[in-house]
Every structure is written in C-alpha cells, then in structure tokens.
C-alpha cells in the first residue's frame, strides 16, 4: 500500500496575495479549487490513503475539500520552508498507515499529474504483490526530473532529515543510482505559481 502526502501549506509568495490553492479551475463540468483538482488526480489514479498538509489559510483549504476522503496535517511552521511540510506529512502518513510500503509526495499546485503520470509511476514502482520494488521512482519529462516522487519506506529517515525550503528532491539527488526514472515524451506538467500560470491552466482546462 502506498501512502500519499500532498503538500498544500505554502505561502504562495509569487501569486497575487491570495491563496492560490483556492483559485478556481475547471475539473470536468465543475469549477473547483485548484487543490481539489489536484486531489482528483490522485484519487483518479487509485490512491486512497492521502494526507493533505495545510498551513496558510488552513481552514479555508480544508473547507475547499469538504466531502473528499482525505486526512489533514496542520503545519504551523509552513513559512519556514517546504521541508517542514514534508516532514509533517510523512510523519502523519506513517502514523495513520504504519504498514505502508512507501510514500508518494505530490504538490498541491500541480494539478495535471493525474493525466497518466501517477498511474505510470505506480506501474513501475510496484511488483505483482503491490509492494514497492525501487527505493525511489520519479518522472522525467524529456530529460527533466519532475513530480510527484515515490519513496520506499526505508527512506523515511532521510526524508525526515530534509531542512530548509526543499522537499524530497534533496533525497533523490543524494544518490541517483537509487532512482528508477519513468520517462515521458512530453513537457513537464506546469506548476501554478503565478496568476499567469493559472490563466494558462484555465485555458488548457477549457480547451
């Protein structure tokens, strides 16, 4: 079983002053919060054990996910960098699901990874008994490493040592011989960091 940590606690400093994860985008026939769209991709790939790490505007983000079967971990230290959310999420995930074979770390502001990317990662990560068979499984888009990234449970101590404004990439880069890359002949799915990024995503969603 794979646990999932969705990082959704950041300060969104490059946006327009509002919480970008609450900005609305089209998902199917509905307009939903960006973070809800990201969760839909995880659920669509068959993931169910999901912890959403919240920080800035925590209650509003939580409310935007009303009715969605996820758990939450509050990170009051989110302004100190992504590593604080990573550690909080990983600890909570293995508290809730201590028998998980690994943890998938995904980003709340990258909603298009549910377009076959997660499914391909899981297909390469799991053996016939649904156990994780690689230390790290990461997507690579035309040679560029992206997200989300799956870590085997044996790497949890390393994830908990990450500091500063870094996520799991610090563990991935430590020894790339441990990484199973899944290659995609496509551009990397866009992060939504700015209002312009959101406009691009909106156009994609409505096309």
Q: Could you characterize the architecture of this molecule?
A:
The radius of gyration is 16 Å and the shape is globular. The strands form 2 sheets. Strands 1, 4, 5, 6, 7, 8, 9 and 10 form an 8-stranded mixed sheet that branches. The chain has a two-stranded antiparallel sheet with strand order 2-3. The N and C termini lie far apart (36 Å). It has helices spanning 34-44, 58-64, 82-96, 117-125, 156-159, 169-172, 195-206; strands at residues 2-8, 24-27, 30-33, 50-54, 71-74, 102-107, 136-141, 144-145, 149-152, 179-184. The protein is of the alpha/beta class and 207 residues long.
Short description:
With 207 residues, the protein is an alpha/beta fold.
User: Sheet bearing the most strands, described?
Assistant: 8 strands, mixed
Estimated structural class: alpha/beta
Q: Uncertain spans, ≥5 residues at pLDDT below 50?
A: none
- Can you give the helix content as a percent range? 25-40%
The shape is: globular
- Percentage beta strand: 15-25%
What order do the SSEs take from the amino end to the carboxyl end, as H and E?
EEEHEHEHEHEEEHHEH
User: Count the helices. How many?
Assistant: 7
Mean pLDDT: 88
Q: How large, in whole angstroms, is the Cα Rg?
A: 16 Å
In quaternary terms, these chains amount to single chain
C-alpha termini separation: 36 Å
What is the tally of beta strands?
10
């Amino acid at each position: 079983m794979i646990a999932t940590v969705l990082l959704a606690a950041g300060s969104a400093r490059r946006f327009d002053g509002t919480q970008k994860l609450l900005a609305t985008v089209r998902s199917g026939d509905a307009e939903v919060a960006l973070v809800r769209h990201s969760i839909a991709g995880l659920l669509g790939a068959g993931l169910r054990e999901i912890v959403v790490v919240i920080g800035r505007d925590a209650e509003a983000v939580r409310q935007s996910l009303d009715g969605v079967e996820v758990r939450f971990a509050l990170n009051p230290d989110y302004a100190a960098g992504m590593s604080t959310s990573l550690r909080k999420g990983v600890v909570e995930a293995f508290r809730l699901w201590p028998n998980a074979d690994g943890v998938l770390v995904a980003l709340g502001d990258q909603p298009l990874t549910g377009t076959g990317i997660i499914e391909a990662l899981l297909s390469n990560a799991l053996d016939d008994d649904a156990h994780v068979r690689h230390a790290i499984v990461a997507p690579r888009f035309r040679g560029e490493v992206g997200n989300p990234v799956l870590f085997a449970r044996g790497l949890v101590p390393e994830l908990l040592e990450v500091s500063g404004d870094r996520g799991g990439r610090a563990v991935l880069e430590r020894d790339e011989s441990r990484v199973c890359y899944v290659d995609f002949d496509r551009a990397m799915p866009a992060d939504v960091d700015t209002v312009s990024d959101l406009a691009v995503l909106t156009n994609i969603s409505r096309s």
